[in-house]
Specification:
By secondary structure, the chain is mostly helical. The protein is built from three helices and no strands. The model has no long low-confidence stretch (mean pLDDT 85).
């Protein structure tokens, strides 16, 4: 059976691009964790300290206070 490769650009455009930044970051973290787990020769659980620095480049140029303010504003708008 022929394996069909997903069109990553299409998946991004249709499902990811319009997600809020915090949801995109959450998705990145999930993907990074699963890739890290599958690439380890042993199946030991990941220690929290093993994840230090993972995804740090995503936060480059992000103002921490502005990000927190945005999250709080979202919380205020929730029913």
């Amino acid at each position: 059976m022929l394996a069909i490769e997903p069109d990553i650009d299409k998946i991004y455009e249709e499902h990811i691009r319009d997600l809020p930044a915090r949801e995109q970051l959450r998705l990145l973290a999930v993907i990074a964790e699963r890739v890290a787990q599958s690439s380890r020769p042993d199946s030991k659980r990941t220690r929290l300290t093993d994840l230090e620095g993972v995804g740090a480049e995503v936060w480059t140029g992000v103002d921490a206070q502005a990000y927190v303010d945005e999250l709080r504003a979202e919380w205020d708008r929730r029913p």
